[in-house]
Amino acid sequence: MAEIQIAAMQTVVPTKPTSPTTSTKLLLLLPPKSHNLLSLPISTPAFHAVLFFHKASPADSGWFHAALIKESLSLALVDHPILAGRLRISASEDVDIVSNDSGVRLVEAKMDVTVKEAIDQLQKLVFWEDFNHQNAQFSPLFYVQVTNFSCGGYSLGLSGSLLLTDPFAATSFLKRWITIHQSLVSSNNDSKFPMFYHPHLTRAAPLLSPDLQSNTKRKTPSDSVIFTFPAKDSDHKELAKCCVYMAEQEIGNGRRMSDEFWVLIKGSPENDGEILLVRRSEKGSMGGGGVGLTASWGELGLENVCLNRGEKPDHSSCWISSSSEEGFVFISPGSDAIKVVVSFP
User: Cα dihedral sign for 266, 268, 274, 280?
Assistant: First the structure.
């Protein structure tokens, strides 16, 4: 089985400095012995997405798009600077995600397979590292990987911490970013290469250090079930219990969540995020008689994301990963609806 070879790793920051900075506070509602985020027995759950593209023209390549991404992503981050942010942990162990312009990590890679063969090796096409527990403030929370295949096709892979974003917000950002990217593609032609694209220069040997290779185990897909609820005031803890019960019925095969599981509630500058450990019950309460509708990843609309205008992906896939042994529930409150993802251990 072919190995991924990393050709370059860079950092993309917003075009303009973010001022004033924004932050999202994370409340750790945990047992006394687990009050420190860095001592939690849970790795950072992450959302991953991969889109595959064929070579649309003689000049088209993943190298070309990676060069443009350095421009388009930098422009897109101006309106979404939190994606370029980092965790900030104070001396009193308060935790925030702050938009400090530290940047999104961009990985350029290649793999000696065709697009068709690469579809069966998804976990190699996204880069992800859990935050460094000793230096969490230096760990990226959002990654982009562009992988070139031997057939001329390429893939675009995204990875984002669920402490930072969620599948729905990340996809919404992707679509706005790609609109900028398409404009840059249209303004470039064979006689006008992107600023960071130099196809006539000899490419350096791939980086083969084990420390730079993405960790497959940390990106293993978890069985997940998605629910959508009408937006209303609700007890998130009871809602999580209820969704666990419904997810077990939905997925079947005797799958059960652990007796205790993690709940991550997405925050915003206006509302604190929360991390809590919940003890399961047979069936929680949604409160107010709300009805949960089972959703699917297809609702994200990744199949319509085009790097080259009019050239849809040949294939797309997305999943959530976590090495948590307890499983977790992710809750994303919104103005119109509440999205809940139950991810089994």
Answer: negative
How far is residue 12's CA from residue 24's CA, in Å, rounded to a whole number? 21
269-292 confidence digits (pLDDT tens): 677 888 887 877 655 555 444 555
Shortest CA distance to 330 belongs to which of 255, 267, 253? 267
**87 against 42, higher pLDDT:** 87
CA distance 81 to 78: 6
pLDDT band at 197 (very low <50, low <70, confident <90, very high): low
Q: How confident is the model at residue 143 (pLDDT cuts 50, 70, 90)?
A: very high
Burial class (CB in 10 A: 0-12, 13-18, 19+), 178: buried
**How far apart, in whole angstroms, are the C-alpha atoms of residue 13 and residue 16?**
8
> Is there a cis peptide before residue 194, judged by omega within 30 degrees of 0?
no
Residues 6 or more apart whose Cβ sits within 8 Å of residue 53? 115, 153, 154, 155, 156, 307, 308, 311, 313, 314
Do the beta carbons of residue 212 and residue 9 sit within 8 Å? yes
CA–CA distance, 155 with 49 (Å, rounded to integer): 10
| pLDDT tier at 110, thresholds 50, 70, 90 | very high
Q: Which residue matches tokens 């897909």?
A: 221
The model carries a pTM of: 0.87
Contact between 34 and 277 (Cβ < 8 Å): yes
Cβ neighbors of 60 (< 8 A, separation 6 or more) are 152, 308
